[in-house]
Amino acid sequence: MNGPGRVVVVGSANVDLVVDVPRHPAGGETILGGDLRRNPGGKGANQAVAASRSGGADTSFVGALGRDEAATLLRRSLEDAGVRTDAAQDVDAPTGTALITVAPDGENAIVVAPGANAHLEVGDRQAERIATADVVLAQLEVPLDVVRAASRARRPGALLVLNAAPSRELPDDVWAGVDVLVVNEHEAADLTGGRDASGDARQAPEQLAAVLLERVPAVVITLGGEGSVAARRGAEPVRVSGVRVDVVDTTGAGDTYCGVLAAALARGVPIADAARLAGAAGALAVTRPGAQQSAPAAADVLALAEDRPSADRPSSRPAGTSRKGS
User: Fold this and answer.
1) What is the pLDDT of residues 231-250, one digit of tens each?
2) How confident is the model at residue 325 (pLDDT cuts 50, 70, 90)?
3) Fewer Cβ atoms within 10 Å of its own Cβ: the N or the C terminal residue of the chain?
4) Long-range contacts of 123-131 (CB under 8 A, 24+ apart)
5) Which residues are catalytic?
């Protein structure tokens, strides 16, 4: 495919209220943190910024914003990254807000107040923009009806990439519209019913991928610093190696991964190679604070990806994985 590829991200936009903490508080506990930071965020907006800035795609954002100062902050951040916002909606609800604590090791805990995101709809303008995309990228911080409508609005041949986060059960009609599913190991275990009593996945990522391939044509399971597994029907899954970096803040790193993956797929890049580019982008993102601010430049992503091995390790698909996802 020639050109940068066209990505339309359908999803959430939030203002992130971030505080550094010595550790995440337990239930009923109060702890003192650092200074409060107010940053642009939301899974959809983060992924749109990454698709444009880090992935080099022609990117549009379809989301809902309140009529408030927070919406101005988010539009400015999106547009500064080269994202088109003319298909975003203004609604009579507060712009979404995320409350985030960040521990010294960079791990975060997040609570989201959806606000305007819960009022997103796919109208004529949004459907027209979605129909121009090579890849439509959606998440689950917006109503499922929005994901359904985005799927219906695609042109023939366009891919729907679903980042199934936050984790939730998916109805059959939503599964039917997904071309590429992107989940972390915990979300994959939720979708396959594969958690043990402690909440950890009972199966290896390759096994989880095999189960999910019974529902979708392709799946990417992200494994944090360990890399990812990229799998598609009719081929052996590929274990994509991780990149070791000094972690500062993991907020938005998964969104950076998804945005770059979608941008690469929009250019026609094979899924394992797209996952390698996305992994490089996610690694660079965790070395910087914030969500949208941490999305790296496309040239830096390409440079890091080119320093990695040109081929990753195929994984033999384990037997005994015939169970359907939920």
Assistant:
1) 999 999 999 999 889 998 88
2) very low
3) N
4) 123/89, 125/86, 125/87, 126/10, 126/62, 126/87, 126/89, 126/153, 127/153, 129/8, 129/60, 129/62, 129/84, 129/87, 130/8, 130/10, 130/62, 130/154, 131/155
5) 255
